Amino acid sequence: MTIEQIVLVCAAVWLGAATQRLTGLGFALVATPFLVLVTGPAEGVSLGNALSAVLCLTVVVTTWRSIQWRRVLTMFIPALADIRLGALVVSSVSTTTLLLGVGSISVAAVVAVILSRRRALLPGLPGALIAGALSGFMNTTAGLGGPMVAVHSASERWSPKEFVGTAQVFLLGVNSLSLAGKGLPATVPPMLCVASLAAVALGAGTGHFLSPFIPQKAGNTVVLGLALTGSCTAVLRGLLSA
Questions:
Q1: N or C, which end of the chain has less CB nearby within 10 Å?
Q2: Calpha distance 72→158 (Å, rounded)
Q3: By three-state DSSP, how is residue 197 classified?
C-alpha cells in the first residue's frame, strides 16, 4: 500500500467523521467507498464498520441527552435478523459482485436520502421497522447503516439534535454486531489502521469545533456529493474488473 493511498483514505475518513459529528450522517457515505477502493470490498467494509463504531461511541458521549431510545430499540430488533443475512452474502459472493453491490447500494442510499427531504418515505412504526431491517443488511454488506435511519428521521421530522444522537446509538449497535458476524479486517496494514483511527479522532474533533458555524444544509450537500462520487467510482471499478 502506497503513501498516496493511505493519505486518500485518511482524508476521506477525516471528512466523513467531521460530517457525521456535524449532521449525524456521512462517515460511511464518504469513507466506505474509498476504503473499498483501496483495501477491497470485504476488508474495506469491515474496516469501515470498525471505524464507524469508534466514531459513534465518541459522538454519543456528547449527544446522549437527545437520544430517542424507544425508536432505537424499534429499529434495532429487525436489524438483528438482517445483519446475519448480510454476513452470509459477504462471505459467498465474488469481489467483482461485492464492488458492484456496494457501489450500487451506496448510490441508492444517497438517492433515498435526497428524496426523503421532499416526502415521507418511511413514516411511523412500519417505517421504523423497515428502516431497521434495511440498515442491518446494508451496514453488513456495504457499511451503510445510516441512510435508512436518515430517511425514517426525515419522515418523522426529527430535529437535527435528535437525529444525531439517536443515529449514533443505533449505528454503534449494528456496526458492533456486523463485526461480530464477519470478524475484524484481517489483512489491512497496521499503519492504515492506526492512521485511520487518528483521522477519526481528528474528524470528530473538527466537527465538534465547527458545529456552531457550519449550516446543516451546506454540510449535507457536500457529503452527498462526495458520497455519490465515491459510490459511482466503486461501481466503475467493479465493471472494469468483471
A1: C
A2: 13
A3: helix
